[in-house]
Amino acid sequence: MAAQMTDAHRRFLQVLMSHGIMEGSEARKLHRRCCEIHKAYYAHDKLDDFISTINSHLQPLFMQIRKGMSEGDGRAHYALVNLAETEITKMASDYTENELELFRKTMDLIILSENGFASSTDILNLADQLKTKKMKKKEAEQVLKVFVEDKWLSERNGEYTLHTRCIIEMEQYILSNYQDVARKCNICHSLAIQSQVCESCGIGMHLPCVRKYFRAQTEPRCPQCNDFWSCDIPGTKQ
Question: Which whole-number Å values give the CA distances from 35 to 15, 42, 43, 71, in the listed order?
Answer without folding.
Answer: 13, 6, 9, 30
